[in-house]
Amino acid sequence: MTMQTLLDAITTALGDVPRPVPLHEPYFAGQEWTYVKECLDTGWVSSVGSYVDLFEQKLAKKCGVKHAISVVNGTAALQVMLRLVGVRAGDEVLMPALTFIATANAVSHCNAIPHFVECEKSTLAIDGKKLSDYLEKIAHIKDGDLYNKETGCRIAALVPVHIFGHPADMDALQQVADQYGLPLVADAAESLGSLYKGKPVESYGLCSAVSFNGNKIMTTGGGGAILTNSSDLAAKAKHLTTTAKQPHKWEFVHDEIGYNYRMPNINAAMGCAQLEQLDDFLLAKRKIVDAYSRAFDGVNEASFHKEPDYAHSNYWLNAIVLHDVNERDSTLAALNQAGYICRPIWRLMHRMAMYETCPRMDLSISEEMEARVINIPSSVKHGL
Amino acid sequence: MTMQTLLDAITTALGDVPRPVPLHEPYFAGQEWTYVKECLDTGWVSSVGSYVDLFEQKLAKKCGVKHAISVVNGTAALQVMLRLVGVRAGDEVLMPALTFIATANAVSHCNAIPHFVECEKSTLAIDGKKLSDYLEKIAHIKDGDLYNKETGCRIAALVPVHIFGHPADMDALQQVADQYGLPLVADAAESLGSLYKGKPVESYGLCSAVSFNGNKIMTTGGGGAILTNSSDLAAKAKHLTTTAKQPHKWEFVHDEIGYNYRMPNINAAMGCAQLEQLDDFLLAKRKIVDAYSRAFDGVNEASFHKEPDYAHSNYWLNAIVLHDVNERDSTLAALNQAGYICRPIWRLMHRMAMYETCPRMDLSISEEMEARVINIPSSVKHGL
């Protein structure tokens, strides 16, 4: 019986833990108290304080980039990143149909239009080969810009998402980006700590946007960051996310329409403490993965979703891929009923009312995987 | 000598305090650490946790409204509030030229156009009489909507700002709003705790947006809220600020283009503790006001800026009004040099590059007051 086999595998992997077992809980075992209390004791909780700078420095180093700009959340990071690489109102942005809603919303917040592209089965991230073939057919370059022949709109950026922490094939995607003159900027909300060909995945492409929401591998309560090697983009990102105010001892002069997106110091303090534990969290994740891999080895009804060969994933959110496309909802019901909080992968973007008329390529693989992928409990504590 | 007189008055009011004296510091003397520690100990720091609900309940009660929806900051509160009352791309929004940049940016983030209106000398807030005369001339109603005859654009909302915490004359503005069929929604970022004709100022108009930035009378690190008596608007605000996700046990279905604007639980925890102290903060502010009033009594060079007769202000930020329009910058230099961190009022919106072509009425009073108003140190601690 399918359900029992899957239930047994999860139980074997996680051991005897109290239920319900959340999908992903944060973990605090470092200097969170100390740093947060210091903020309260000094009164530096908001935009004044040293933890924001410190967090940005440590984060940039960890991600192998020159600059990190912390913001209120991952959606804000994505929106600002897109605007900075030149996405304008009415442009199209190539992004996966298979992602969390934030990727599409960030595009919309730039008054741009999501253009949905297909994923690979192995990584669930954008399929570079299929994308290249598709652009060959539907796009043409004019005066250095890429245009959609069908809609007439400019195509302004390519945004892979590192789904569940597993890196997209950045070299393949960079090739497509180069061929068509597109900025490659990544939605790295889920992949902090992941390596692509031995280097932090955030060090690829022009910029990346990460998230520190409470369900991520590490958290600042709410938060995100833009990561880049470009000093120019970094300076612009800092300016734009802090109301575009010109430096002056007392005058309030703002030189463009900016955002109030800065991360408060108290959240950055938490981030500093969490970042110090990230390596431990990554090791814990590996132990969970080993346990799941063993437990699902030989299970016929589903496969445990693994990192691609070229990557060392943070395995932020574990997933199984059902072999039968018709069993997802009954499986979800049974697993949740048994006290394992499990979720399907996100509903595909082009199946949401507000995005159903957006341009898209053939999405058969995305549609198949939407019907087969289930996320299973992944909290760091299970690997400690 | 002007400078010396002003310096003496500030020194007399504040007493012997270490310099530099900040313009406005937050104050933490309540349960901040207890509540924040509870978040860290339970792991409820982000979107899961009970402090968000508790904070919203306490805040609504304090502001005399049925509903409060907490968000990441005051700008986000303003943007969502404008969208909810029907502001659409291309609309004009009536707002003061004399305000912080966030008011205009929130309008821009709705893809709408700020339309700058004149202030009263007494409150520095919108002058209802002048606005009414102006609309009489430049606007006309067609099919129930108000249009700017000069630009052809719809005028979609009226947004007073309670400058430095002093309530705008809401009855007068409501009359104008009613006459022209405009929703009246307030930028109450600065006025938490202020009363208009004996009731919380946030209970007037259709909704208000407040801020809990670190420089406000109370803080959540970064944060804001939408306040309203309308259950319909409140439900829509909560939906829109939490990615417009439909409630479901596991499905990710979002039914419109939403925002990731929710306030993290750890920031709401701080907010609960700060809100418990708000009455003490308000009393402290009154003591500072009494001291400044006495100290500036008889000073010929400047007047201390006082609340209007109809209001009981929170006196968030104290201000003096110079009698000579040419002495502002030299006065600012001298006060800052002496260790009192002082600021001019914000540069007028229509003098910023990105807003200089926006529609506006005669702004002579705003321009005069821009040249005369200086904010002086106002931290709660000076009144304790």
Could you explain how this protein is built, in words?
The structure is a homodimer of 384-residue chains. With 384 residues, chain A is an alpha+beta fold. Chain A has two domains: 2-26 and 278-383, Aspartate Aminotransferase, domain 1; 32-276, Aspartate Aminotransferase, domain 2, CATH 3.40.640. Helix content of chain A is 36%, strand content 16%. Chain A contains twelve helices and 16 strands. Chain A has helices at residues 2-14, 32-42, 51-62, 74-84, 101-109, 128-138, 170-180, 231-241, 265-276, 278-296, 328-337, 364-370; strands spanning 67-71, 92-96, 113-117, 139-142, 145-148, 154-158, 185-187, 195-196, 199-200, 207-211, 224-228, 302-304, 311-312, 318-322, 343-344, 373-376. In chain A, the strands form four sheets. A five-stranded mixed β-sheet of chain A has the order 3-2-6-5-4. The first copy, chain A, has a four-stranded mixed β-sheet with strand order 1-11-10-7. Chain A has a four-stranded antiparallel β-sheet with strand order 12-14-16-15. In chain A, a hairpin with a 2-residue loop joins β4 (139-142) and β5. In chain A, α3 packs parallel to α9 (265-276). The mean pLDDT of chain A is 96. The interface between A and B is large, with 66 and 66 residues.
